[in-house]
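Follow-up to my post from last week.
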Amino acid sequence: MIEQLLFYTFAILTCGGAVAVVATQNVVRMAFWLVVSLGSVAALFFLLHADFLGAAQLLIYVGGTVVLLVFGVMLTASGPYTTIKTAPAEGIIGAAVGLMLLMVLVSSIGSVDWGAISGRLPSSPQSPFTADSIREAHADEAIVNSGSTKVKTDLAAIQQQGRTVRQLGLSFLGLRPDRNLKEGGANGLAPGYFLPFEIVSVHLLVVLIGAAYLARAKRRAVSEDRVSLD
Amino acid sequence: MGDVGLNAYLMVGAVLFVCGVVCMATKRNGIGVLMGVELVLNGANVNFVAFSRYTSLGLDGQTIALFVIVLAAAEAAVALAIALNFYNNHLTIDVDRGNELQG
Amino acid sequence: MHGLFAALTLEDFIARTISSLTKIPADSDTLLLIAFLAAAFTHAGLLLGLFGGLPVFYIWLERKVAGRIQDRLGPTRVGGSFGWLQTIADGIKLIQKEDLVPKEADALVFRMAPYLATIASFAAFMVLPISDGWIAVAAECGAFLILALMSLEVLGIILAGYSSGSKWALFGAMREAAQMVSYEIPMAICALIPLMIAGSLNFQVIGRMQSGGFWNWFILHDPFTFLAFFCYFTTATASVKRAPFDLAEAESELVAGFHTEYSGFRWSIFFLAEYSSMFAVSAVAAILFLGGWHDGLGIDSVIDSLFRGTGTGIIEGFSLGSYVANLFGAVVLITKACLLVFVQIWVRWTLPRLRIDQVMTTCLKYLVPISCFLFLAAVLWPLTLVTMFSRPVIAGPALGERALSQQTTTSIDASERLGAAR
Amino acid sequence: MANGSLTHTFSDGIMPETGDILMFLLTVAWLLPLAGFVVEVYWLCFSHRLNKGAAYVAVACIGIGFLCSLTALLYWGNATKWAALSEPEHHAHSASHDAGHAEAGHGEAGHEHEAHAVDADEHSHSPPPAPAKKYFSGTYYELARFSGLRVSLDWYIDSLTLVMFTMVTFIATCIHIFAIGYMHDELTEEYEDHEVHLHNGGHFSRPGRFHRFFAYLSLFSFSMLGIVLSGNIFQVFIFWELVGLSSYLLIGFYIERKSASTAANKAFIMNRVGDFGFLIGMMILWTSFGTFQFGDRTEGDHTQAGLFTMVRGQDGKLDVSEDGKEVYLQDAYGHRAERNGKPLSISYMLLVAAGLGVFAGSIGKSAQFPLQTWLPDAMEGPTPVSALVHSATMVAAGVYLAARFYPVFTPEVLLGIAYIGCITLFIAATIALVVTDIKRVLAYSTISQLGYMMLAIGVAGWGAALFHLVTHAFFKSLMFLCSGSVIAGCHHVQDMSRMGGLRHKMKITAYTMLVGVIAIAGLAIPGTSIGLSGFYSKDAIVASALAYSELNPGHILLFIAPLVTAGITSFYMFRLWFLTFAGTPRDAHVYEHCHENPSVMTTPLLVLAVLAAGCAWGGEGGPLYRLIADSELVPATARVASTGAAKVILPSHQGHESDVHHVHSTAGMLALISAIIGMTLAYLLYVKKTIDPNQIRQQFSGVYDFLVDKWRFDSLYDAMFVAPVHIVSAWCVSFDKGVLDPILHSAASLTVLTSKWDRAFDETFVDGLVNLVGTVTYNVGNSLKVIQTGRLRQYVMWIAVGVIVLFGALFTTIPK
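User reply:
Got it. Predicted complex:
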């Protein structure tokens, strides 16, 4: 119930922020609403027990990307609070197409039996994070033994909540403690994400250099015109 | 504690996605288009994490979402650099002015 | 052990109390909702008190220190001879001021921006442990989260500067954005060094690993963490835009920087955010490097043993010993953070302001390489030790053993507390 | 480098490594000029040209080469305990050949054969005596091996090689030094060639070629030494061609002069005629013998016989079959060579043909009749070149080759050689009588003297020929250098009719020249046998010829001609000296400007004069002759009667009992008388003027013109070869123009016609089709381009619409 309450709060904030981004014409306000929307998405991630992901969302999106976008707005604004207005007809067409797309998506979501599909997916432990929680459960044996059954179950539930840092880290190192060993086939270990992780690292470096190169100081077209006029 | 369920999250993701698409389709400001891209990616991320929680996708969903976030950051950096170049060349950020490839 | 301990215990305690009073089953949704909200509000209130109270103290401190450094007395009249009510008086005055929005400003964003900055700053308090187990949200990735939350503050400042419709404010915002985005990098790397040594992002774990003598503090773990502390403190000072890095509000150049156009309450909560951020980064420095809530002399364990077992019978899961020890820990931590804040104030009134290019140079050309080097060296340090002496530390038990032993003892403490909670 | 095997030792006490040491020294002497050449070419390309660096490099190279050669000669002498110089009676090889076998049997190879004999079959009752050879040989590097035939770089060292090396390097050193002075004019950036007249009346001007000259000289020295050191006939041929090239370059040194370039071409082409015969001879040798090697080659315990052993065996005799048509080849152990049980043999006539072929090469290189005409023209080159290349060394290479191949020559070939030499020596001497160009007199004298050498080889005077080769090299190079000195002193005046009385101005040149003249004339103090070097060597040749003609009365001409020519030689040489140095100056201008040359030029003259006078000291008992004769592979201790077509008897010429020895004093007396007559005549004609030369010239104007026209050989060759070629060429041209061109033209016009039709087809049908496709594509694209608005947002919208449509289609078509 609490979760539902929180979910609806943040879902409304998310959707409202997104719609506000679409509806607003001023870029800086769009950025503000985008912050609201993305921050709420981070909250949704916390609700989905993905703590690390939520923190990453805050750090990278809200703290990084949006700041970057606002930076871009400042660097490309030719006057204060520039608004480049969309023609009303386009807005209406866009809204219509968007609604149709939403309908398509919603009907798709509704028409799929996710449980059945989940069953068809490769089998995995019922709770994805048992490996870690079992270890911690052993460590907390003393606490649990001294407490009531209610505490015990609650604690087990808590321990399943959001403790994904270690698993994520290990999976980036190529290890999957949450997976059954037999899934890895003859090699004994389930595959992790070592290679994608490294590729992404290099990719980031390349992007860093590439973006710096692209955005380097250049003579602007107008200055050339001025030179020619002089 | 009651559970919200997978479909609710998917709905949120769908709304984010559609808003992103419409944003991309209607905004004439290049930065606005970038914001639309971010929305679309976040819609996808919400779906991934929701699947990670409610289906046997498990940890993979979170991992992929993490990759998406990282790549989105990279994309934003490059796209912003492109937008700055666009601004340098056209003296505006209006993407409708970049129609040199018109047939 | 760790987890949403305080919240849970409080929530659990409230639920159980209400349940016992009203005979409603303890696991009914309504009861849990009520208990959760009650616990959450309690915590929020406590945190808000901390969040609001500390800046009041710091502003007074700032004035007194500045006065002393400038060979004058500072506030002397309001609230007695030390003027310790001066801040309260100022606050009351500010709240009374008219809330002005310039004509050129983007009203919505202009109004929202201070809240954004303040919320970000306040949110950082949620994952900040005040003492062992005294934490609002005991997230597994607390350290990561606090860095993320503190980085949000810049957004409010940028939006404030941009929406003011003033060139001073815009320049301030731009400077602030550039500075914050740059300084986040060395700050995160320096923070990573103790995190890497501890092997955890959880403040609770990090804090407990530094229990015992002060030689267990991470600042004394190896030479590189010692240097990393100063590096971190420099970047932290810059990231809360304190002098000599306060380019965003450089009075001599930009009138008042990003808050030039602000007045009254909105203006004051910017300062609320700034001073509480000072406390937050100092507290993080204390936890990561200076032993957290441990005094380093063993006084807390003495207190713990003195009051052990006392009061267990009053409420189930309550232990007076651990409670008093935690209270002492909170005092220790706040004292450490206040000392660091004092240093920041001291530095502000001692050093002249840098130019913006000097600020950026300091970060990108010096602090980033230095922090990278320190990180690398701190990684290689235990490997070198293992290669040369077959042990990862010079003296004392290895960090992992320390953590394990600590885990068992705290488990006992926790069980006592849990037992007290029953 | 030296993987050569020491074939044999002379006798006990010679260290096995002697051969290697000799090889090393001579190889250094051989390769140094090549290094010098490379350095000079580098210098030529990249350095300042106005210094004498190249000359010093060249002199240093060849000088060190001389020291190496001399060291090698002395080392060889010490190693053999100077056995070659001892009295022939005590000499192991010359006195008794069988004894030589016995002694040599104790050598290294002897042990080998004892060991071999133990393993050998029982029926090899008499183990073959060890092959006794007088040389060292080996292989530097094997280029290729075609089944039996090895193509390799070999070395072959005997006393002749050593003497030649020493002689060549010494003379070359002297001439190099002389050339520093002679070529001094070339040390300028603006050398004006007075011989070349341009259309505008001026002279041709070019940068000096000092460095180039020394580079060529070094290349020549390298090639010449290569011939001498070569261990197989193929290698000889390579260096043979290389000296040909050097000679070509040096004759054409003043390439702008028409006469020089023509002379260079003439020399080169004429040499090719001879080389063609050489090639044929080589092919015969290859097919018949399967080896190019001179000497035997030991690989492991097997000794492969070389060419000489195959032909001559161990005893120096041809193994001719009974019917006289086959010559059996012999192996290294004194048996007949066998393959698959059948004895190897070569047709006698084929052997004659091989000998004649190789000799043809010698004819070309040594300017013998009928290829003698190139050598006088070769005097167009600078005088040091004439001295070194065209008198002392390269032209002597022909004689050297003939002598080196002496074992392969049958008596018939020798007879041919003798007659060729005889004709040559007479013709050249007669022409020399009327020539007034100082260098051309010497050139004809060279041809004549080379004819003497060939004659000597032909009449079995092997040692005499090579003896004369060495002495001639000294005195002829001396005379050429003297003439060069005169030419340089007189500022490039070569005509003797404009000289006279120069001995007052050029004392050293004049008297050193006189030494050379006396040497070549063969004068001696009557009654004694004390004379200069030419006396001894010519004496030896004449004696050989007399002995030969006594045994073969039908060939009396072979004695008469050299005898008469000895007088002619004496006459024209003294005529030269008298005209140049004696008497009164005939051209005051030349005389006024004439001067003696600097010491860098006169010093070599003095040194060479001493050697020209004294090198043959002791005559046939002297050290030089003995050294040369030591390496003779076919020692003639007894008369050898020919069994072939030509019934000739070769005289013996070794020892006190030999044929030659008997007639020696007679021949010497006759030759001396002849020479004195010639000298006296010259004195009377040109000094005393008792007889007016012009009168004689008018009286015998027919003969005089004939001689001035060089026996009309050039005209003859023009008529025989050049004119027919011109006629055939003219015919070919008319055939080309009349027949071939019309055919080609009609084919071309036909092709053009076809192409036009093809083009029309291409343009209408093929192009039309392609254009149609292009037009259609263009129109379709043109109509579709409206969609391509270039607007980003519209594309996004289309994507969204596309997705909607796709999903809509999916939902409607796929049932639930």
